[in-house]
Amino acid sequence: MASRPLSPHLEVYKFTYAMATSIVNRVTGLCLSAGLVLLVYWLVAVAGGASRFARAESILSSAPCKVLYAILVIGFCYHLTAGIRHLVWDTGRGLERTQSRASAKVVVVVSILLTLLIGYCFWIAGVRVA
């Protein structure tokens, strides 16, 4: 039996920087959705009483969770800026090849700056949300 041909997208399209930013936007969205499990766990612990909350607080304030929070903040900043880029695309602007490449670079730079700003505010400057 002869093998069926592969879909043409594997042969026709070249992997580009703009394409990579769009793919990473989808991946960060999935990671943020998975990160909601932590939020739900915390909310259930809050509703469960003082003992459950104390246990959840000890788990959620551990070093591995803090690393996970940092990863989620990076993903959030990237997903936010790339999402704004997609919203601009939905208006029909920025779809030309040069504009798409430029906006991909802007997304990466802005998300890095936003991540650094949030990291500074919460981990270095010690800003507390009250």
Count of discrete alpha- or pi-helical segments spanning 4 or more residues? 5
- CATH fold field value: 3 helical TM bundles of succinate and fumarate reductases
Number of domains: 1
Query: Which CATH-level-2 architecture?
Result: Up-down Bundle
Query: Briefly, what CATH class?
Result: Mainly Alpha
Given the helix and strand composition, which structural class is it?
mainly alpha
**CATH homologous superfamily descriptor:** Fumarate reductase/succinate dehydrogenase, transmembrane subunit
Write the element-wise H/E pattern from the N-terminal end onward.
HHHHH
Q: Percent range for helical residues?
A: over 70%
Number of DSSP-assigned strands = 0
Report the sheet with the most strands, covering strand number, pairing sense and barrel closure.
none
Ends: how far apart?
Answer: 67 Å
Radius of gyration: 20 Å
Low-confidence stretches: none
The dominant shape is: extended
Q: What percentage of amino acids are in beta strands? A: under 5%
Mean pLDDT: 89
Describe the SSE topology.
Layout: H1 9-12, H2 17-48, H3 50-60, H4 63-90, H5 97-124
